[in-house]
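Task: fold both queries, return tokens.
Query 1:
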Amino acid sequence: MPNICPNCGKPLQDENAEICPGCGVRLKPLITRKGLLIFWLVFALLVIALLAILYIIHTHPVYEEHWGTRAVSARVRQVGFNIVVTWEGGSDNQMVSNYTIVVYTGNSSPINTTVNVPNNSVGFSSTLPGYGTPYNDHTVVIGTFTDGSHQVVLDAYV
């Protein structure tokens, strides 16, 4: 018994034909139920994997501690030939281990000093005697945090 096109009723010469040679109607679907099921299964697995990766990144302490900007600040001023840095704190103030102050003067190589702020006291000032010059001195303050990360807290000219 020959196969017949359901659209035009013409007999099909090949029982595996996908398109009727008489009317051109598609006889077999482009996607089978099995193919569609596999597609959605793979899609669902990819979505689950992506959500798992995002969850790990969002909740893992390593990522939490090293990503983002810390909310701490300092200010600098020059008094005569002294550079005075004052710690202004911020919401991440208790995470600061110490500050490194680097002063770039026009005449010499950078001068570095590390300062431990007692109890991370807001308003604590460090005076660097003789670090200032009559010219614009580039002062950079770098915070070191308890997780080992670093961040520029201040970058200014005085």
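Query 1 returned. Query 2:
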Amino acid sequence: MVVDLDPILHLPVGPAKTAALVAWVQGLFPAGREPVLVGGAAVELYTNGAQASDGLVFAGSVSPDVARVLDSAGFKRKGRHWVHRAVEVFVEFSSRVLGEGEVAGRLRVGSYEVATLSAEDVLADCLAAWKHWNSVVDGVNAWLLFRARREKLDGKRLQARVSALGAEDALRALMMLTRRLHDREVTQEEIKKWAQRGP
């Protein structure tokens, strides 16, 4: 049974709406075969909205049945993107499976439980994008994610994922910043300047 999308689309912007949208999309798929949330929306959920996302990106593909439901709900396909112009929501299916060594997990946000890439994998991806592509947004996201989840992260797994992506120096830079700041609150502008310098 497909849940009515309209009430979700009119929720205020934030992690509750994002989680509801993710759960709606994943609910279109058979249990155990739902696409896995990756990217910025995963950061948004892991950080409880410290960084907002402008769309949902999933590792997975769309069957003809799911395509029909998306279309009937007001989404229009543009390549691998599905755009709902009336409320400016876009959903991307990257048509890829999780990468070698990546794992999915379940994350509870309010009353929703959604399939996401593990926090260690999301953090490693952010650090790699910050290092290899000079992506300031990903450097900021790495800090926000680390700050929000550091007590729950599997340090050995994180190190292995970062090493696999060749981003060890980015992780070292993040750890140095953490030690330097200790528990001091920092502004978004300070973190952005730090990320602009690169690892």
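Both queries returned. Flag for query 2: The CA atoms of residues 47 and 148 lie 5 Å apart.
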